[in-house]
Design brief:
146 residues; alpha/beta; Nucleotidyltransferase, domain 5; 5-stranded mixed sheet; 5 strands
Length: 146
């Protein structure tokens, strides 16, 4: 008995399964990726408005001077406010801001909430600043570490 051996042809590698796998990976990464951080509040300096937006005219009654300064208010994870290393109650914060604005109406207040601070504490701090007469309030959010 004589068996014939078939001629070896070159191995044919089809590209279809590889292309299918790459398309599935592409769709997976597109769906699971985050392109915009919508949790942030954008900060815009005066005079530099985004396209299509207008900024209010600067307040001419209280021009900003270097001695006007900026007051940094930290908002802890428990909702307590800290100014210059001293924890303050809501009443004490209101009194401090009112005195600061009375001394210099162009005072800028920057609120720095921690990553674990709840939104109600931030809103309460913003309301206290508004009632104290602060006209320039900024909220800065830093990326929280896991």
């Amino acid at each position: 008995m004589r068996l014939r051996r078939s001629r070896r042809t070159g191995l044919v590698i089809t590209m279809t399964p590889m292309v299918d796998a790459l398309l599935i990976l592409l769709v997976f990464f597109m769906v699971t990726s985050t392109y915009l951080d919508l949790d942030m509040i954008p900060m815009v300096e005066r005079g530099a408005a985004p396209t299509g937006h207008t900024l209010p005219a600067p307040d001419t009654a209280a021009p900003r001077t270097p001695e006007a300064g900026t007051l940094l208010v930290r908002l802890g994870p428990d909702g307590r406010t800290v100014v210059r290393g001293q924890p303050l109650t809501e009443a004490a914060l209101a009194a401090a801001l009112t005195a600061r604005v009375a001394a210099n109406p162009a005072t800028r207040v920057v609120i720095l909430p921690s990553g674990q601070a709840n939104a109600q504490a931030l809103v309460s701090t913003l309301e206290i600043a508004a009632r104290a007469g602060v006209t320039d309030v900024r909220v800065v959010r830093l990326e929280s570490r896991p």
